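Researcher: Let's run the pair from yesterday's discussion. Sequence first, then tokens, for each.
Model: Starting with the first of the pair.
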Amino acid sequence: MSLLTVGSVAFDALETPFGKTDKIIGGAATYITLSASYFTKDNNLVAVVGDDFPQTMIDDLNQHGINTEGLEIRVGEKTFFWSGKYHNDMNTRDTVEVQLNVMEDFDPKIPESYQDCTYLMLGNTAPSIQQMVIERLNERPKLIVLDTMNLWIEIANPDLMSLLKLVDVLVVNDEEARQLTREYSLVKAAAKIQTMGPKTVIIKKGEHGALLFSEGKTFFAPALPLEEVFDPTGAGDTFAGGFIGYLAQTDDISFDNMKRAIIYGSAMASFCVEKFGAERIMNLTKEEINQRVNEFVTLSAFGL
């Protein structure tokens, strides 16, 4: 089934205890679509970049089967840029520099060929932009998944609350879930979010796995213990891409299949952190993905 992802395609400059990079490809929509490309072949992107964005990077996306018809290139303008530095624990980071550039007035344009999308993934952007995307589609997709962040909870809460009424799945981390609901218990937080609109809530806990709440049921997916985390940038978006990509491939949004999608998303995220930026998820094989998924199965399997 067709997947539409809307979000940022960007330049990142990263520094971790393992090294640093100059400008490399980044952005929420980049990680989501690359991750989803290993599952669905109808993988469509809406984003905006400046004319400083190299054609070679667009070619890399195309080679993964990502349809970039909806990638707007603005002449005379610059691509969104983010620079960050990670602390030694790799769980905290400092934003060194942000240049909004073309993202400052992002106006998502949905090509006619995307209008029949079955699955919609709203990558992290302003809630007003995310709602604009839903309103510009001729028909409501089968499933709408939303990613947001603490910034929008703080400065655009009314817009976010309006948007939540329109989506099926919300993906947030534990800190954001608590901030949004003022509940410390993640079980209570998920229940409160479900009263806001989304019937399914995914709460990411970083190196401690992810929780799925839906249909009155709960599922916990562990994170794979890794010897080293090289760069966690984009891991959450890669998780979301694996999740929505697997659902689009199987076209099954039951709770049991969402559990499987969570594991595939977790597996993709575990690859992402192994190298800088999107480098690792650019060059995966089906065999590697299946083996990694089996590691998750082995990690959590037990008998009674």
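Model: Moving on to the second of the pair.
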Amino acid sequence: MPIKIPKLLPAREILESENIFIMDDERANHQDIRPLNILILNLMPEKQKTEAQLLRLLGNTPLQVNISFLQTITHQAKNTSQLHLDQFYTSFSEIKHRKYDGLIITGAPVELLSFEEVDYWEELKMIMDWSKTNVTSTLHICWGAQAALYHHFGIGKYELSRKCSGIFTHRVHDPVDLLLRGFDDEYLAPHSRYTDVAVEEIMNHPSLRLLSSSEVAGPFIISADEGKQIMITGHLEYESTTLSEEYSRDQKKGLDIHVPENYFPNNDPNQNPANRWRSHAHLLFSNWLNYFVYQQTPYVWE
């Protein structure tokens, strides 16, 4: 089944070229079906790239999914045109009266700031609090996961000695958990961040379950309230070249940055990296939509 997106969204052309089944408003309105309504709070600077990454994964299930994009009003996006934001994004004040089957809160390049220093922190706190009563399940990614752990559970982040960037091996701790259904005992996933959270704090917190982690990259998949809140500290949604693009960007800025680990063939940035995490990315998003959204959400929100 398709994902429903605005007819003129630029990501449409990318998704259609990959044979991902999409549907615009005009066609969807002729179908008598209760689709899942998924809201995406996109905090990433290059919003159109993130849109395509997430829509690619949300569009690979038998479920029909309506997508809406949310932006913060307390931060002015610098890398996305205002025309794009006006055309495809909404604000919290416009949707706070609604109920959603699922919410995705993306990462953001603000991790070296304290949470309170982020200009949209108060707005984000309102959205996270609202999600507890107005959303069936919320998926938090990277900095979004750290923000959720801090706001909901009082677990802070700490700065790493150097950026965690690369492809790392992870182990599954609870193979019977529905979110990890079909996962291999060990699998690969990308990380790209300067901060981390302590695995001991997560394991000792009575409301949290550590489902998967990496010896090198730390806690990865964390669940709370039977999957109503899910935190992913890395970037399974990343494309094959995303880490390469970030590495080149950081080099151009003159940052003291190392080559992403276990990523380029022979550790050579001149060679094209292979995507070795795509299947688990699709599996995680499919499991989330099926077991924690579709099978948990009411047919009619009261």
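Researcher: Give me one sentence on the second I can quote.
Model: The chain has ten helices and twelve strands.
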